[in-house]
Structure formats: C-alpha cells, structure tokens
Amino acid sequence: MDSARNSKARPAKVTYESAVIRCLAGDGVIRVEVWKDVKGKVARYNLAFMNFHLFAKDNGRVLGYDTAHSALHRHFAGAVESIEDAPYDVIYDRFIEEVQELKRRRPL
After folding, report:
1. Is the model more confident about 2 or about 29?
2. β pairing state of 28-36 and 79-82
3. Residue 34 contacts by C-beta under 8 Å, 6 or more apart in sequence?
4. How much is the pLDDT for 1?
5. Is residue 27 part of a domain?
6. Measuring CA to CA, which residue among 23, 26, 1, 39 is closest to residue 14?
7. What is the residue range of 91's domain?
8. Which of 13, 56, 58, 81 has its CA 20 to 30 Å from the CA of residue 75?
9. Per-residue pLDDT tens for 69-98?
C-alpha cells in the first residue's frame, strides 16, 4: 500500500534560491524553484529574473521560464510564449545567459 501511495506522491520542492544581482539599470533578483518527483527527476520548475528598473509590470518579472500548467513557456516583459520542451539544465543555462545580457541593459 505504501508503494502505491508513494508512486502518486506530489513532487517535492528541493530548491528555492533567491539572490540579488547587480545590474546597470539597478539591482535585480533571480529566483530559482525546482520540484523533483520520487525518482529524483525534475518534475517542474520556475526560473525568474525580476528588475523593476527594466520592467515594472508583472511584479517586475523581466524574464522567466516555467512549467506551470504542464507546458514549458517563456515570459519576457509581459509576453508569454510556448517554447519547445528541453531538459531543465538546458533551460537553466539559457536563462542564465539571457540574464547576463539583461544585466547590461540601461533603465527603460
């Protein structure tokens, strides 16, 4: 009975990190949340870069990737687009590269 219950267990949040980063426009925040299933596989995630100096709407979220609603999508300055599914580490690396570019932008 326990194995049946464990196979339907909800993913557990294993990562919640938030860090302030210096940007040309003014300080921003990176937030990383990751949930894994019972087998240790990434089940869902939320990557967000917030900076009110670059984008004031959407709680300051300039850039984000998440798997809410079971589909991978990208947020950029209030727009949302579905993107092709890719492994978490590929999306994470893409996110960090984009944040590095955004850090060099001047205020809007």
Report:
1. 29
2. unpaired
3. 13, 14, 15, 42, 44, 45, 88
4. 44
5. yes
6. 39
7. 2-102
8. 13
9. 778 999 999 999 999 999 999 999 999 999
| C-alpha dist (Å) from residue 42 to 8, 22, 37 | 15, 29, 6
Answer whether residue 94 is part of any domain.
yes
pTM of the model: 0.86
3-state secondary structure of 102: helix
With respect to residue 81, please indicate whether it lies within any of the assigned structural domains. Answer: yes
Task: Give the type of residue at 75.
Answer: H
Question: How far is the first Cα of the chain from the last one, in angstroms, to the nearest whole number?
Answer: 57
Predicted local confidence at residue 6, as pLDDT: 52
Does the pLDDT at position 106 exceed 90?
Answer: no
For residues 63 and 102, is the Cβ–Cβ distance under 8 A?
Answer: yes
The answer to whether 51 touches 27, Cβ cutoff 8 Å, is yes
Number of residues written out for the chain: 108
What is the count of structural domains for the chain? 1
